[in-house]
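S.,

Sequence below, as promised.
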Amino acid sequence: MIFKDAPWMTEELSILGDATRKFFQAELVPHVERYHAEKQVDRALWEKAGEYGILAASIPEEFGGAGGDLGHESVIFAELGYTGDMSFGLFVHNIAIHYVLAYGTEEQKQRWLPKLASGELIAGIAMTEPGTGSDLQAVRTTAVLDGEDYVINGSKIFISNGQIGNFFILVVKTDASQGAKGISLLGVETDGLEGFRRGKNLDKVGMTGQDTSELFFDDMRVPAANLLGDIEGQGFGQLMNQLAWERLMLAIVGVGVSHKAIEETVTYVRERKAFGKSIIEFQNSRYKLAECKAKLELLQAYVEKCIGKIIRNELTADEASIAKLTGSEIQGEIIDQCVQLHGGYGYMREYLVARMYADARVQRIYGGTSEIMKELISRSLI
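The prediction came back faster than expected:
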């Protein structure tokens, strides 16, 4: 249990943490080699996660969720991180759910949330475009109102769950002349949708078990009733308002992964021998692991504080940015050191630490780069 001593921890959350760890160990971990070979997880994993209440833990029961709060979500994501494997694209699915919950009309919530909670709909966020990166105002995918439909043209890139997903929060320009004020969000169910195409499953450095794709829209028609919140031009603000949870979520995962990396490395250096003694008997090995533990303890304390604040709806943008920056950077430092202590074996993908090393690098890029986080933090000082 990752956050067992957190001030906001309850018996219910502790039970959830233990149950979630058992679920991932039984349903995810035994299949990761196949997921990496096939570059995506099975739809059956999503359906089982839905049955266990993992997909929508903080969604009200009236919409098919478990009725918890972001403390429940935090426990789940820490345990997902602790598996050491990032094949299961729960991150973006969860973010999409919160967009619908926060901004959807009553009809949209009744239509989409139960299916997202069960795994019938698997979600992604179709935001990034070739050449835009973090500059959302430069989005070029257009949605032009034509009768009762929007006609959509454009493309997206680096979309997680891009192959397996069948529901996307699509970032579009409903008024290309208005910059950020012209951005809107559409909920798009893609099964059987004309004008919707998927590109190939992209070949990534890490997270190879998690599907990532280009998406293409060629005169794709989506009902105007799918406009999130039912008002055009609100998309930029909607995106910004959800970033605190997204960034904290990534820091939480970083804590879980770091715990697993240190645990795996301690086991390895106890068993591995060099010059007639275990590697852990060398002072350098113990000191390096001590540094890793110290960094993780400090990171976890801050993340636990942030979780408490977001449960109370008090987390600020700069606090979330600090969590994302330090979480991703410290995760990278810890895993890098763990690879070093594994020696040559740490560079072999058959070892979990090597896969964690490859997966960790993108943590400093998606969800806002470390450079963007520093810019946001610096603004709070002025």
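Residues 33 and 209 are 8 Å apart (CA to CA).

Coffee later?
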